[in-house]
Amino acid sequence: MELKWLEDFVMLANTASFSRAAEARHVTQSAFSRRIKQLEAWVGASLVSRASLPAELTEEGRKFLSVAQETIRALHNLRDNLHPEQEAREKRITFAALHTLTVTFLPELLEQVRGMLPDLLSAIIPDRGGIEANLDALVSGEVDLFLTYAHPFVPMLLDPTAFEWRVLGTETLVPVAAPGLGLAAGPWEDGEGLIELAIRLGAPLPYLDYGSSSFFGVALQKIFSRSPGMRWQVVHQSTISDGLRQCALAGWGVCWLPEALIRRDLELGRLVRASNRPEWTLPLEIRIYRHRDTTRAIVDDFWRLIP
């Protein structure tokens, strides 16, 4: 039995999709399916019902899930405990976080908590891009805490009996563009933004896209589905907001960006809102997640001291 088989199984349980789980685990779907079958052969039972969509765990699979999660955490803890820098690890908290929050929110949060935990050592793993891959880092025990945005459009596939969360703040995702970005045709009407103009004229709007697997990409698809008259022309795609911000500043197209990231750009007129209508904005919560059964004192202390 291999540890990656257990990690594959936990990811499949969280996503209920062989294709999405394989993508999050960075393997082909055929290789992923083969590893799940190898795990089932080792366990001696069918863990996943392949006759239903989305994929569902069998009764044996549901029983095995908690065992797999605990085994993954135990092995990661064992590895860390055998590390020669154990004393430093006892003071370290490892985060998974959406990239924008590592720029706009996490530094201030850490600064506030360090006033009460002066010996705190913090670390951040690289943003995995897709929301499911970041969740997997929390589920597998690779990280202690996961800092993320939250919105009903993007379900968090976490067992509420095993994980808890707190709301730390709010954010708003707004459509913006460089002032020079426009459409060849006109004329403009009073109070009309670039998005409304494009819809009225039936003109394609150059769009800076987050893709289909990132948090913002999933949420924005829900917004776009409510406006079938909108025509998008994707000119660039990235899961990193700050990278898309640079493209927007260069005049490549319209992009939805967090207000905290572009506040100065709006104040200086480097970016302008592409619409002032509320239906094109996305209000978000900022949440932090952790395992309910964590045994690490530093994590408990941090959780207790979060403002």
Automatic annotation (TrEMBL):
Keywords: DNA-binding, Transcription, Transcription regulation
Domain HTH lysR-type, residue spans: 1-58
Pfam families: HTH_1, LysR_substrate
Top-level taxon in the UniProt lineage: Bacteria
Record keyword Plastid present: no
Molecular function terms, GO-annotated: DNA-binding transcription factor activity; transcription cis-regulatory region binding
Transmembrane segments: none
Family, per entry: Belongs to the LysR transcriptional regulatory family.
The protein's name: LysR family transcriptional regulator
